[in-house]
Amino acid sequence: MMIKINLLPVRQVKKREASKQILVLYAVLLVGALVGNYLWYDWRESVAAEGRAKIQRTEQKIAELQKVIGQVDTLNVRKKELEDKLAVLTTLRRGRTGPVRLLDALAEATPKKVWIRDFDEKAEAVKISGWALSHEDLAEFMRGLGTMVWTSKGMGRLIEEKRDSKTRRVELIDQNGAIEDFSPEQVGNFFTAIELKKANQTSVKTDLGEVKRVEFDLTLRAHYTL
Parallel, antiparallel, or unpaired: how do β-strands 168-172 and 154-161 relate? Predict the structure, then answer.
């Protein structure tokens, strides 16, 4: 007689065990995924928080720099206002003392045989009309204008200037004719751009008889040194 064994319950038990194992595996994978997502999110949040902190620090530095820039702009505005005020004061001083020094220099440069008839000065541009007894006297007058200089010790007359020399020799008018050597940076010409516009020889009748003279017009620029 052959014995029959019913294996169906055993198979069902094995199937149930396998299902449980699969469910456990799915649960483990799900928990692992959740933990991984949490860790990834936490890391991303840390990175984002660090980025926000850097942005906040950068914004603070920008605010501080803007404050410093504002202070610099204020200082620049005040500097410009001060420069404008100084420019106005300089203009006023030039208007007060410039013409006086111009006349002093003109008087020093004018020879005895030259007379000034008309004088006009506007913004350092000068027009002079007059007469001289001869062309030589007129030439001496123009040379005299060209030698009038300003130095660190006052007005003077340039008496020597060599091309290979590093100094200019000046006779100081304000110091009783003392002669000193100055560097080129310490000496400036009082009159420049001296140009003769007219030089006509004429005759004039006087009580002493007929006198010849040279009528002239010239222009130049006067530089006031304050």
Answer: antiparallel
Name the domain count of the chain: 2
The range of the structural domain enclosing residue 198 comes to 110-222
CA atoms of 182 and 187, how far apart (whole Å): 7
CA 110, CA 218: separation in Å to the nearest integer? 13
Residues 6+ away with beta carbon under 8 Å from 221 = 124, 125, 126, 191, 192, 193
Whether the CB-CB separation of 170 and 212 falls below 8 Å is answered with no
Same domain assignment for residues 81 and 115: no
Q: Model pTM greater than 0.70?
A: no
Same domain, 14 and 48: yes
Residue 102 lies in a domain: no
197 occurs within a structural domain: yes
Q: At residue 144, what is the residue type?
A: G
The pLDDT tens digits for 74-123 are 778 777 877 766 665 565 455 556 677 788 889 999 999 999 999 888 88
The 10s digit of each residue's pLDDT in 139-183 is: 999 999 999 998 888 889 999 887 777 889 999 987 888 999 998
Residues 6+ apart with CB under 8 A from 122: none
